[in-house]
Amino acid sequence: MPDPHQKELVQRIVKNMLDIQLLRILQANPLWGYMIKKKIETNFKIKLRHGALYPTLNSLERKGFLKSQKQTHEGRARKIYTITNAGKEYLQSYYNIIKDQLENKDLQ
Q1: pLDDT tens digit at each of 108 positions of the chain
Q2: What is the value of pTM for the model shown?
Q3: Nearest Cα residue to 20 out of 67, 47, 59, 70
Q4: Which domains does the chain have, with CATH numbers?
Q5: Sign (positive/negative) of CA torsion 41, 43, 46, 52?
Q6: Greatest CA separation found in the chain?
């Protein structure tokens, strides 16, 4: 039986922690904005607006967690985003915090 709360919780996590989700996606492969948007929409079953995606990508790049490079593919210019070592470290810090939270016996 599917969890009736799963969809709502996944949407909250993705929307409230979009930066983490973007880093997780880009850790697997460098991608351009449209493909990132499609991956989030397919994987998490949510509609992601350009107005949320691109400011978050730009913020992550300013912080040094992502780098971008313009490439041309089939006559179209694309900005390909790649996670940096700093982005990987940030993501690992997130994983460590989640692990600590889940293992914290005082809260159970």
Answers
A1: 568 788 888 888 888 899 999 999 999 999 999 999 999 999 888 888 999 999 999 999 999 999 999 998 788 889 999 999 999 999 999 999 989 888 876 665
A2: 0.85
A3: 59
A4: 6-107 (1.10.10.10)
A5: negative
A6: 57
